[in-house]
Amino acid sequence: MKFAWILMFGLALSLGCSDDESTGTTGDRPICEFGERYSPITGTCMPISTPQNNTQGGGDPNNDENNQNNPDPNNASNNQTTNPNNPTETNNQTSPNNNEPDMGGDDMDIPDMPPLECGTGGVIGLACTPSGDVLAAADVTITGTDCATGQPFEMVVRTSADGTYEFADVPSGAHNLNISTGSFSGDSGVFVRAGEVTDLSSAVDKVCLDGAAVNIAVVGGAYDAVEDLVTGLNLTYDMKGDDNMDLTAARTFLTNANEMANYDIIFLNCGELYGRLGPLFPFQQDPRPQIVNNLRDFVNNGGSIYASDWAFPWVEMAFGDVLDMLGVEGDGNGSKMGFAPQTVTADVLTTDLQTILGRNTATIAFPHNPPAVVNTNWVVLEGVGPQTVNQIRADVQLCSTPSNCSTAGATQSAAPLLVTWKAPSGGTVVFTSFHNKRQATLNQDMELILRYLIFQL
């Protein structure tokens, strides 16, 4: 009788653990022990832990949980695991059933190594922003060595509207996977087995952009606040003055090309900075020509600029025919003819934005509820330069006269509302006539568009 109870107890334990093991019925995939999971990144069994996105940086070096993923090579306890059958014996394998090479942590570049079986497999996955939201319209690249030829290979696909991507016929083995868009990127390893599909879609395995690797500066403006949107995307930034109380800081930053070069992206909020930086007296030096040259050099050296509405003079002066302003060129005051409030149904002209929105139109609002929200006399474009991409356009109402915007006047047909220009060196300039301040009237279309734009910079 005693023997029967022992037998039943052992059987119950066996059944209780069966749901936590991978059966490993295909290829040479290892059978994982209780408390472990198969990692498609390393191709090995890994301890089950709290999900962490595969991005570089952003961890607290004083946090023990982060240190577990970044072991100190000088600490022997990080490089060893205890053999449960012999407490005094240590080994370097994650699992006693794992006969494959140790490929390191998720954050390490995985070296090329001979796969257990040479062939091809697939990869599916989910790309995400630093905040964990889905990332559409990003490039996903797999690089490695083809096991059949011994030659390097590269494969590139684009993420869909829901952030998913898929590769077919990927050579088996350990490879590197990179997700990139604008100044942002995220890296991971991926292990492909012949005849299988490797899945990087789970909360543990999905690959997110590394926001900490991108340096962002924001110059404040009276009528916009892109920093609110940047914060919502889990990105950090440095404020560099504004067009009002901190005018000196804005001047100091924009006249210092070396300081600007420390950043990848500079946001210029809608405001009156251009006018207020002009000399008050004839004997004062005008800093604006130097700022214009610095902005031009910044973009030509690979940096990106996003200017909204009344920040347009910086784009107009630095980049010539990128914008075709309504009215007289130059300071562009004649183009401040946009009536508000108004909401328009705009044509979406680029494939990426159509994919993100799921249609070829977008609702763009120009709210006006002073003093909290000021949009009257917003800048109207009548066209774009030959190398500029017009992404969104709409028929818009103008003010009745430049000096009277309390009533609507004529209609400007097909006015560009969002334009982008890329320098030959890779830098990007983005301009929007509409604002990006987070407010009740920032509708879903506008938020999706602005989120997309930030990750294109």
Write up what this structure looks like.
It is a single chain. The protein is an alpha/beta fold and 457 residues long. The chain folds into 2 domains: 23-57 and 90-211, Immunoglobulins (Immunoglobulin-like, Sandwich); 214-454, 3-Layer(aba) Sandwich (Rossmann fold), CATH 3.40.50.880. It contains 10 helices and 25 strands. It has helices spanning 2-18, 64-69, 226-232, 247-254, 257-260, 273-276, 288-300, 312-319, 351-357, 444-454; strands spanning 36-39, 44-47, 81-83, 86-91, 120-128, 139-145, 152-158, 164-171, 173-181, 184-192, 197-200, 207-208, 216-219, 238-239, 265-268, 304-308, 323-325, 336-338, 342-348, 361-366, 378-379, 381-384, 389-401, 404-422, 428-432. The strands form 7 sheets. Strands 14-13-15-16-25-24-23-19-20 form a 9-stranded mixed beta sheet, sandwiched between helices. A hairpin with a 4-residue loop joins β1 (36-39) and β2. α7 (288-300) packs across α8 (312-319). The chain starts with a helix and ends with a helix. The relative contact order is 0.10. InterPro entries: Carb-bd-like_fold (IPR013784), Class_I_gatase-like (IPR029062). One of its GO terms (molecular function) is carbohydrate binding. Residues 64-102 have a biased composition (Low complexity). This is Carboxypeptidase regulatory-like domain-containing protein.
